[in-house]
Structure formats: structure tokens, C-alpha cells
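**Backbone description:**
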Amino acid sequence: MEVDLKNSKSILVTGGAGFIGNNLIRFLFKNTRAKIFNLDKLGYSSSLEAIDKYLNDLKIESQNRYEFLNCNLVNDKDVDHAIKYSKPDIIFNLAAESHVDRSIDSPLNFIESNIIGTFNLLNKTLSYWKELKSYKKDSFRLIHISTDEVFGSLSNDDPRFNERTPYDPSSPYSASKASSDHLVNAWFHTYGLPVITTNCTNNYGPWQFPEKLIPLTILNALSNNSISVYGSGMNIRDWIYVEDHVDALCQIIQKASPGEKYCVGGNSERTNIEVVKHICSILDEIKPCDSPYSELIIFVKDRPGHDNRYAIDSSKIEKEIGWSPNYNFEDTLKKTVQWYIKNQKWCNKILKKSGYDKKRIGI
């Protein structure tokens, strides 16, 4: 049966203080009547500022539709309490450690968060789901949001990743996400838990934690720091504007059958150096300085296990769900650059809190 997202009474978003999560929560406020529970451990990259700012502009009755639950999925008792307390009709699972460089330096954090955390969520959700009345059981869904990095690396001539692509993760991060995907699939086949998995490509847009390629490039350029690029910069990524991704998730949750899997892409492949140079040209146009920003670009030693290319074939979601990207890369990249220029104070604050060095490389 199809899920009525607009009339759901309770929606639980794990990782809602993250970049994609806070965009999803704001979308759900605009497009549903549900009470939205934001479950997040408030890690180094978390920020509630985007949601708080949005809520401050709403009426009091709308603010009552939101509740923050400070919870780490690694703690199974807290997870159990959060699910029983929120009584969700739908769960969006976005909670994850997600930065490759950090996974190389500290893999245990990724094993705990992405594998043990997902296991606890699945286990406690299964217990909750079993106790639901039949009509609520039928309409309940858990959508697990994953990454295209679980598929490994493509050569420049390979066809794009699709739902049948074998898993071949290259980093501790992608290996931990691949493990979580397999757990979700097992809980569907073994226990019948109504889950859906999505694998999305690189997101970008306002409010992204500034360790990722696009915001990091912008901030280093504005600070007149070197813009470090791994290797030759010829690694290819498929980019999707975060609002397109959120729209895809909400269409999938309403139309997809339990056990299904969808690859979500932006149909916008670019080499890393192309993206960096494009950002520099936008800055040259809207915030010119004495010399072109591209002169700040330097090439550094490649990182271990650096995948050559990610690219998503979105034909299944286009055919079965009727979704395709709405946003143009060039227009939204310029919009994103403008946002970071105006919000450098937020960027510096969250970077300071995390202990992150802006001079590091994003991707």
C-alpha cells in the first residue's frame, strides 16, 4: 500500500542535525502535518541552527510539531526509549559518520555509528513494529539513506552504478555503510520489517558542514588559503543539490514497496578540479580580489583508496517513482557559493567547535 506522508502523525528522523537531515526536516514541516522528532547525538558536524532559524519564523502551533531527542544510536536502551516515545509512522535513517578522511584516521567511530547504530535501530524498530495494530503495520516504513560509495570505483568508461551493481567498498567509511545496507536488507528478508534503501551520490547546498569539497573550497578561497586538491583532480563525482535528494526521499517513502532499493543521482558528473575551478570563477565574478582565485589551487599527494569515479543511473526511480532532478548544477552551485559568503560566521563557529582545519582537503 502507498504511504500517506502528508497525513502521517509522527515522523522520526535520525541524524536530523546533519546536512541532509535538517533539509529533510524543513521539507517535512512544509509538506506534512506530522509531529517531527529529530534524533541526533550532536556530533562534531551537527548543527541545529538551520532548524532553529526556520522554527523561529513559524507560528507557535507549528513549533509544537517539532521535538529534539538527544540520542546516540549506539546506545540501544536510548534508541528503544526514543522509538517508543515518538511512536513513528515513518522513520528516515540518516544518522551516519560520513567523511572518508576521518574514517581512515579513526575507523572505529564509523564501525560503531554506522554498523552498531544501524543494528540497534533495526532491532528496536522491529520490536516496535511487531506491536502495531495491523493497519498501522501495513503503512509503516523505515527508509535507510546510504551512499553510492558502497559500490566502489568506476573507470571513466564504465556504465553508471545501478541497483544491481555489486558492492565493492574501498574505505572504512564505505565499508561501514555497505555493512549497514546489508543489515537493512537482512531485516527485511528475515523478519519482514518494511524497509527501503536508497544510495545517493554527492550532495551539496547551504548548511553543509564545511569539511566537504564545495564549502571547503569556498572558505579556503575567501580566506586566501591554498585550495588543496588530491592527485590530479581528475576523480569524477556525480553531484545532486540537497533539495532534489530530499524530494526523492519523500516521493520514495510514499510510492515504493518494502524491500525496494533505489539509486538517486543528479545526472551531473564533474571532475573535482572542474568543480573547484568553477567555484573559483563564480567567486571571481561576485567577490573579485587582486588575482584569480584559481591561483590558490595546489595539487597534493592522493589519499589512500581514492575512488576514481562515482556515477548513478537513476532510471529505476525515474520510471517507478516518477522522480528526476529539478535543479541545475551551475545555478545551484552559484546559489551555494553566495550562501557561504554570507554565512562565514556560522562556518567558522562550527569548524572551531569540531577542531577541523579548513586547510585540509574535502574530497
